[in-house]
Amino acid sequence: MKNIVVVGGGISGLSAVHALRKVLPPAVQIHLIEAASRLGGLVGTSRDPKYLFEIGPRGFRPSKNGAEIVSLVEQLSLQDECIESMGHNRFVFTNGKVEQVPGTPLEFLKWSLAPDIVKAVLHELMAPKSTASDESVYDFVARRFSPRIAEALLDPMASGIFAGNIRQLSVRSCFGLLHEKEKQHGSVVRSMLFHSTPPVPTLVDGSLKSPFVEDKSKAMSLSFRNGMQTLIDALTASISSMPNTSVALNTSLSAISMPTADKIRLQLSAPPGGPQALDADHVFSAIPARHLAPALVQSAPVAAAAMASIPFASVAIVTLGFRSNVLPHQGFGHLVPSCEKQRIIGVIYDSCSFPQQQTDDVTRLSVFVGGENHKDVAALSLAQIEAIALEEVRAHLGVSATPEYVASSWYDRAIPQYPVGFHALLDTIEADVAGALPRLTLLGNSFYGVGIADAVHRSTAAAHAFAKTLV
Ligand SMILES: C=CC1=C(C)c2cc3[nH]c(cc4nc(cc5[nH]c(cc1n2)c(C)c5CCC(=O)O)C(CCC(=O)O)=C4C)c(C)c3C=C
């Protein structure tokens, strides 16, 4: 009887178990190992009676490879719980004030960045194609568009996905579409105007996307009426009811080896009575690269060293609850370019984005502090970070009310960064793992995209690819 182990009970590991169970024969044993005392990793919800706040991601993108997570929502019968973001407007802090990103041509004409954008687009159409295999997001955008566009638009976008620094992040690995469009058509703008890519009608298993998946793909962001914890609870309940599927909490990985060609062995650190070692036919690792690296030092040293070199950004999230509507405008939130020299990365207006998550007309805000452009924040106390968050909210949004709910958390090395040349680093990692530990498959946001949609897509695709090797 085959024995499969999934290491890591975050969204990547949970969705991998779910997908594997769907494609493998019921007699195959699947074990999920998680180091913490709960499943879900950074995905979870804190539910104060009045103020719902997410621990980590506020929602997920349903478009592009997001079809797999939307399909997962449907498989778990969560359609009625699933809600669409109502925060259609987005804002960027520009020249000392919060400005709306235009949604119509008329709004565009009134935008302070419009003249810079028009000039940059004309420049882009003529800019020569680069032969470099990769470059930083800043270098790419400054070269093809303009330094001003890189600093005013790409910098906040990179903050709002990676909490990262555009002078270090790889354009190829972080904004792959820009890189591909230049390589294929010589110009990003020309490619967008004349070579749009039609949407893929199928899921990774080849089946047609359902009407629910098609319908939800148009939303900017999705979440759940009772928060993202809904997805974790439903996955946990589904996995617990599956035959030949076990979950071990408080159990961490110490080492992976292949004592023989047909077995892969895990050394574990578990509570008394728990498994100290497991032999398996295949292992899926869904833990961060910096946790997996020490377990591979003996068996795949090249991959281990490459994994250990992947940087991670740390952020603080300060959540503020006000008893009435205190916002001067409605939208998803605002992002702050680092050239504006403010002390926060941005604010998500949770109560505007997902008003379905509350009954009263309260204001819920999430203020993001830290990241690669504000590393000094790591030395501050949470009380100091909360004070900064509140001061910036007052200054940016003109809020004078005192919040009745304040909470904050520090997420140490939470967000993987893909620096210039990351594609080559990943090739090195995959080649060493394929050679030294062919019974190990890598999953998770350290390697395959930082969004939840990317995580579920990778896990589902890997489960299907594995099932094909068995027939
Ligand atoms: C407009 C305000 C936003 C702030 C402030 C913000 C902070 C922030 N976000 C991440 C990580 C991710 N954000 C992602 C998507 C995303 N973020 C915003 C806006 C803000 N983010 C929008 C409108 C979207 C798209 C809709 C959605 O997915 O919900 C993602 C997913 C990216 C993807 O899958 O393509 C991530 C990851 C961090 C780390 C952060 C502050 C530190």
UniProtKB/TrEMBL annotation:
<keyword id="KW-0274">FAD</keyword>
<dbReference type="InterPro" id="IPR050464">
    <property type="entry name" value="Zeta_carotene_desat/Oxidored"/>
</dbReference>
<keyword id="KW-0627">Porphyrin biosynthesis</keyword>
<dbReference type="GO" id="GO:0004729">
    <property type="term" value="F:oxygen-dependent protoporphyrinogen oxidase activity"/>
</dbReference>
<dbReference type="GO" id="GO:0006782">
    <property type="term" value="P:protoporphyrinogen IX biosynthetic process"/>
</dbReference>
<dbReference type="InterPro" id="IPR002937">
    <property type="entry name" value="Amino_oxidase"/>
</dbReference>
<protein>
    <recommendedName>
        <fullName>Protoporphyrinogen oxidase</fullName>
        <ecNumber>1.3.3.4</ecNumber>
    </recommendedName>
</protein>
<comment type="function">
    <text>Catalyzes the 6-electron oxidation of protoporphyrinogen-IX to form protoporphyrin-IX.</text>
</comment>
<keyword id="KW-0560">Oxidoreductase</keyword>
<dbReference type="Pfam" id="PF01593">
    <property type="entry name" value="Amino_oxidase"/>
</dbReference>
<feature type="domain" description="Amine oxidase">
    <location>
        <begin position="11"/>
        <end position="463"/>
    </location>
</feature>
<keyword id="KW-0350">Heme biosynthesis</keyword>
<comment type="similarity">
    <text>Belongs to the protoporphyrinogen/coproporphyrinogen oxidase family. Protoporphyrinogen oxidase subfamily.</text>
</comment>
<dbReference type="GO" id="GO:0005743">
    <property type="term" value="C:mitochondrial inner membrane"/>
</dbReference>
<dbReference type="InterPro" id="IPR004572">
    <property type="entry name" value="Protoporphyrinogen_oxidase"/>
</dbReference>
<keyword id="KW-0285">Flavoprotein</keyword>
<comment type="pathway">
    <text>Porphyrin-containing compound metabolism; protoporphyrin-IX biosynthesis; protoporphyrin-IX from protoporphyrinogen-IX: step 1/1.</text>
</comment>
<dbReference type="InterPro" id="IPR036188">
    <property type="entry name" value="FAD/NAD-bd_sf"/>
</dbReference>
